[in-house]
Design a protein that fits this description.
Order of helices and strands: EEEHEHH
Number of domains: 1
Helix content: 10-25%
Structural class: alpha+beta
Largest sheet: 4 strands, antiparallel
Number of strands: 4
Bound molecules: zinc ion
Strand content: 15-25%
Shape: globular
Length: about 80
């Protein structure tokens, strides 16, 4: 999954099933780097907007909210409300 680092425009890659995160997508069928979201985004992550996700240029697949939200509930941080 693509996630956006809070306070940055940086996108990181995350597998919610094993909890491994990457700065760049790993090569298919290879695991040469193991980091966590905490390593890559100590301030937390949010979901990228659809235009930010499409802007990465990666081939994306849409997954229904019900199918992924429970896997990410602990990782995704609500954005602080901006003062009005
Ligand atoms: Zn995994």
């Amino acid at each position: 999954m693509l996630l956006k680092v809070v306070g940055s425009e940086r996108i990181v890659f995350f597998c919610p099933l094993c909890g491994v995160a990457w700065r760049a997508p790993p090569a298919e069928r290879r695991l040469e780097q193991v980091e966590t979201l905490q390593d890559l985004a100590p301030g937390g992550v949010t979901l990228p907007t659809s235009s930010e996700a499409l802007g990465t240029g990666f081939a994306l697949a849409e997954v229904a909210f019900e199918d992924w939200f429970s896997l990410l509930e602990d990782a995704v941080k609500p954005l602080p409300l901006s003062p009005s």
